Amino acid sequence: MLDWSKYITVADKLQHKAKYQDREDLNHTIILSLADAQIRLDNDGGGQLSDIAMLRIGSYECQRYWRQQKRLLTILSLNTVIDDRTFLLGCPMRLIVIAGKRLKGIPLNNADKLYLGKWRKREQKRLSESCSTKTGERCQATTGG
Q: I need a labelling partner for 117 at 20 to 30 A (CA). Which of 26, 49, 126, 132 fits?
């Protein structure tokens, strides 16, 4: 027999371990996992899940949640690295040198400032042209809104 009140109590004890926006999702995941475990136990011969077993199952779901979060962050960071490398392959060497100076805190001379300004203006123009929609509106990213 499914004891939903116990499942909810266990899930409420463990939901704080997730990010705030994901707590309800983790709560429901734990409740469903406990119910599935009880159904499997009933099919195998009966009995109730012990409190320790329920906490263990809930703890496993928390662990699985954090593994999924870490995997998602790893995939996102790899995509960023690939995008950065792709950009650098097509980027002029002088612009890379200017970026290195800015990262190191070295002041740019007037020629570097002028080159960087021209590059930014050209890229902004290209970006705004590619963001134009059929109605002639521009992307909010290019208009600053």
A: 132
